[in-house]
Design a protein that fits this description.
The complex is a heterodimer of chains A (520) and B (466). With 520 residues, chain A is an alpha/beta fold. Helices cover 34% and strands 10% of the residues of chain A. Classes of the chains: A alpha/beta (520), B alpha/beta (466). Chain B: One of its GO terms (molecular function) is glycine dehydrogenase (decarboxylating) activity. Chain B: Its EC number is 1.4.4.2.
């Protein structure tokens, strides 16, 4: 036979397209998806149907309107929908900058999916859960070394909840010093995560947002002017969304400390700094890591994750209760935290996520973590250099400032030339089995792309990604229609979003859809 | 000084020296030390982190961690009667199959196209839970019941522009702590007394405390202590007469047989999805839902994402998108958005959808019936023991009940210690959380308990107390 020639520049791709009905449309009266145990005959004989003992006003009148579907059809439905989801495992996941979507080792899931994890009740006697407590405790010890902080709580279930916990500690700290009313401001920066502003606002703080200087760094003079006796805390990411590291961070934190405030470090994404630099040396009093980002645990379409919250010695007693401790013989839960903010999440947060993070660290060690940070940065610098070879794409602020592990680009010039926006690009890139998310709002940088390769992609993966983006830029100039109408090879065609912001028309559930679209 | 890296690591393709050199060359850099140049020297670590040495193979990693985890005794090895916010139910195999699919497990923030499946499954979960609740709007799930309740109260406060919430006195103290922290400052939480015989809310105390500053009244069904609060309509009237919002927490596994709170006046319903197909995971699989009517004043106060259905340009095709995205902190508003949104528990929402699709109306009914029968049986059998009251409250419940050991002369701690020795995880000791109850324990019975499990429990307690 003839040699099969494979010289296409970009991937010839088509995502699964199943055009599945909505689950309710699969219902056929009488079908069962799973059988449920029934009470034994002796029990029924003794207590009857049980339900007649419930006051009639508390009994459900009729059955809930759930669909009746056989098991295979339920399975098929959800498997098809899974194929219509482009998880990190199946694509070269670079386009979700700030989210640190890296490889989630399968072995870690395997370890966490045994009954020794899944079938533990959170209130079991401590003697029966020494294993998981040991894992949590040992992960705490490793987190301390990685950050320089002194104690960790694994209660927060994600980064935003961790930020809220930090803001709660800030409030409690000043309350106990009698300064709660006076200190009513929290300072953040424009390229820190939106939750760094939103979660402290929930805790009643006035938010001061520091814009950047011409170098893309938080404006020091503006910051200095903002710090006062009203400052409760500084909540910041570094590097920020732009990938730019603020080299004067210690001057910032020193100012806050001198003014009597607390420094809170959003290290949700710490991927570029492992073994390079830590929260402690930069003058922070608290920090948190997203285990589902930096520590390789799966994102799960948006959780469950874990926002591991670390504090310096003096703030230990403010942490949510309880902490896992070790008395030299056994692991136990320490509830004796006298200034504690109480609790932020049920039980011990997400222990299965901590277990996976523990496995991740133990597969890398100090040398591996350092390699992660170096390669995350190398991949990023390589990606920037190669992508910018396309005229019209740039990184705002100084191009020659080395980014750390991610970068926010702007394709403004290409948009001006062609009318193709970053939103259009995001729709087209799916036709090649890739993904670019919309970046955090508001768009201070016009037509943004926020890309973060992490340590996961190989050079070949990076090159494929770069080629694909360049290919789409070419299309923008040569054949913009194909982008306007994209996606073509994705799961569905362009969505008509006009109903989504109109309360008369929006349909948040199937029942509302049936009601609002009823034909007379 | 150079810190050593880990070369040729399977998770880090470009830790391969040869490729590394090639990339560095292309960048005009000499070594990895030429990276991170923007970080000032005084902030840089000068030596490697002091961490345990990495395992040299996947096998050794697995072996070592299994060894630690094998120190645990799982609830499947013992008979478990613990509930109190995390309940052991049967998880159908298809639930595990779907939520361990790599596409869902490693998905995150894709667009409505490349993540069509994520959008549709979460829309379906919202729609299925809405049917169970007989309500219109359900959020993409939040962290847990406590968070859902806390946000519900904050929503009520924003809607009414009032700053106080009245909360049922039998609430789980841990849940209360989470709510209090989340609502502080802004919404003050006041507890309402409960009747010591029935557990029901003390309506006189409610009337005494409700005011024009009351944003919300909150109670639960079943209550934390298991019994049913059957005064829903009365509480609803008292609440609404004052222009406040009624928030009710509910265990969704009860709704095949129990009336959903929307039938007795709830404006906002919240609760936990964990009973719907989630393993316990040492409490790590809690997942909160919030539900309201489809009215703008409610919908616009959700901090969560709400996935809605929408047409595409192609006839006959379903598409999805975010409803009123701008209200969230992900929109242009940042700190002026509603509370905040971020990674919460989406995969568990997907799983709950799978569970409800499998169970169907009949499954949910049979589940509820079974649980009621088993609980009644357990209460009756325990009551036959000398000094034991199978149910402290003179009021029927669902799934959980307070067993009163006061007249046995033994503490719950003592009894539970001995039960453990017999391979039984006894109910949660309530003596610290509710000292007024003395020596009582919160027992949980679900469809996973066979008659013989309950009989073994009764036998074991008899041996301990007699």
């Amino acid at each position: 036979m003839k040699r099969i020639v494979r010289n296409s520049k970009v991937r010839d791709f088509h995502q699964a397209r199943w055009n599945e009905p909505i689950i309710f449309e699969l219902s056929r009266k009488g079908e069962r998806g799973v059988l449920v145990p029934k009470a034994e005959a002796d029990i029924v004989k003794q207590v009857g149907d049980g339900l007649s003992k419930i006051p009639s006003k508390m009994r459900r009148n009729g059955l809930p309107n759930l669909p009746e579907i056989n098991q295979k059809r339920v399975l098929m439905h959800y498997l098809r929908l899974s194929q219509e989801t482009l998880g990190g495992d199946v694509n070269i996941e670079i386009g979700q900058g700030t989210c640190t979507v890296k490889y989630n080792p399968k072995i870690n899931d395997k370890i966490a999916n045994t009954e020794k994890m899944t079938a533990l009740h959170p209130l079991q006697d401590k003697s029966t859960v020494q294993g998981i407590l040991e894992i949590i405790y040992k992960t705490d010890l490793m987190m301390r070394e990685i950050s320089g902080m002194n104690y960790f709580s694994f209660q927060p279930g994600g980064g935003s909840q961790a930020t809220m916990s930090m803001a709660s500690i800030v409030r409690m700290y000043h309350r106990l010093r009698g300064e709660e009313d006076k200190r009513d401001e929290i300072i953040t920066t424009v390229y820190s995560h939106p939750s760094d502003a939103a979660a402290p606002a929930l805790k009643g703080y006035k938010i001061i947002t520091i814009m950047t200087d011409e170098n893309g760094q938080p404006d020091y003079e503006a910051f200095k002017a903002a710090v006062s006796e009203r400052t409760a805390a500084f909540v910041v990411a570094n590097p920020e969304d732009t990938g730019i590291f603020n080299p004067r961070i210690k001057e910032f934190t020193d100012l806050i400390t001198k003014a009597g405030g607390l420094n809170c470090y959003d290290q949700a994404n710490a991927n570029g700094l492992f073994g390079i630099a830590r929260a402690k040396e930069a003058g922070f009093h608290m920090c948190y890591f997203n285990l589902h980002k930096s520590f390789g645990t799966p994102h799960g379409c948006g959780g469950p994750g874990s926002g591991a919250l670390g504090v310096i010695e003096e703030l230990r007693d403010y942490l949510p209760k309880p902490l896992v401790e070790f008395d030299g013989d056994k692991y136990f839960l320490d509830y004796d935290l006298k200034n504690s903010i109480g609790k932020v999440k049920s039980f011990q947060g997400s222990p299965q996520v901590v277990l996976k993070a523990y496995a991740w660290i133990m597969s890398l060690g100090a040398e591996g973590l350092y390699e992660v940070a170096k390669i995350a940065s190398l991949n990023n610098i390589y990606l920037i250099k190669k992508l910018l070879e396309y005229k019209g794409l740039t990184v705002p602020y100084k191009v020659d400032t080395q980014r750390i592990e991610q970068a926010r680009y702007t394709m403004e010039e290409i948009t001006k030339d062609t009318g193709i926006t970053s939103g259009d690009l995001a729709r087209r890139v799916m036709d090649f089995g890739m993904h670019i998310w919309s970046s955090h709002h508001p768009y201070y940088i016009p037509e943004p792309l926020t890309l973060e390769p992490t340590e996961t992609p190989s050079k070949d993966d990076l090159d494929e990604y770069i080629k694909t983006i360049h290919h789409i830029f070419d299309e923008a100039y040569e054949n913009p229609e194909i982008i306007h109408n994209a996606p073509h090879n994705s799961t569905i065609h362009q969505v008509d979003e006009t109903s989504l912001d109109d309360s008369e028309k929006w349909c948040p559930t199937w029942r509302v859809y049936l009601r609002k679209t009823k034909e007379d | 000084m150079t810190i050593r890296g880990f070369k040729n690591h399977p998770y880090i393709p470009n830790s391969n020296l040869e490729v590394q050199q090639e990339m560095l060359r292309e960048l005009g850099l000499e070594s990895l030390n030429d990276l991170h140049v923007e970080i000032p020297e005084e902030l840089k670590l000068k030596k490697a982190l002091n961490l345990p040495k990495a395992f040299e193979s996947e096998y050794e990693l697995k072996r070592s961690i299994n060894k630690i985890m094998n120190k645990n005794i799982s609830s499947n090895e013992y008979i478990n009667f613990l509930g109190a916010g995390c309940w052991q139910h049967y998880v159908p195999a298809v639930c595990d199959e779907i939520n361990s699919r790599a596409e869902f497990l490693t998905g995150y923030a894709g667009e409505p196209y490349n993540d069509h499946g994520r959008f549709q499954t979460l829309f379906e979960y919202e729609s299925l839970v809405a049917e169970l609740l007989d309500m219109d709007v359900v959020n993409v799930p939040t962290f847990d019941w406590a968070q859902a309740a806390a946000t519900s109260l904050r929503m009520a406060s924003r809607i009414t522009r009032r700053s106080e919430a009245l909360v049922v006195g039998t609430i789980c103290p841990d849940r209360l702590m989470i709510i209090q922290n989340y609502c502080d400052p802004g919404v003050e939480i006041k507890l309402i007394n409960f009747n010591k015989e029935t557990g029901r809310m003390d309506l006189e105390d409610l009337k005494k405390n409700i005011s024009n500053n009351t944003a919300a009244v909150y109670f639960e069904n079943p209550s934390y202590l298991g019994f049913l609060e059957d005064q829903g309509e009365e509480i609803s009237k008292i609440t609404h007469d004052r222009g406040a919002i009624l928030v009710v927490g509910v265990d969704p596994s009860s709704l095949g047989v129990l009336a959903p709170p929307s039938h007795y006046g709830a404006d906002i319903i919240c609760g936990d999805l964990q009973p719907l197909g989630m393993h316990m995971n040492y409490g790590g699989n809690q997942s909160g839902f919030i539900s309201t009517k489809d009215e703008e004043r409610f919908v616009m106060e959700f901090p969560s994402r709400l996935f809605g259905i929408a047409p595409t340009i192609k006839e006959g095709e379903y598409g999805f998108g975010d409803i009123a995205y701008e209200r969230t902190s992900f929109g242009n508003l940042r700190e002026r958005g509603k509370e905040y949104v971020g990674t919460q528990t989406a995969l568990l929402g997907i799983t709950a959808g799978v569970y409800l699709s499998l169970m169907g109306p009949k499954g949910m009914y049979e589940l509820g019936e079974n649980i009621v029968q088993k609980s009644l049986y357990a209460i009756e059998e325990l009551s036959k023991l000398k000094g034991v009251k199978g149910s402290r409250f003179n009021n029927i419940g669902f799934k959980e009940f307070v067993v009163d050991f006061n007249d046995t002369g033994k503490t719950v701690e003592e009894i539970n210690g001995k039960l453990l020795f017999k391979g039984i995880l006894g109910g949660k000791d309530l003596s610290e959380e509710f000292p007024e109850l003395g020596q009582c324990a919160l027992y949980c019975v679900t469809e996973i308990h066979l008659k013989e499990d309950i009989d073994n429990l009764v036998k074991a307690i008899r041996e301990i107390i007699e």
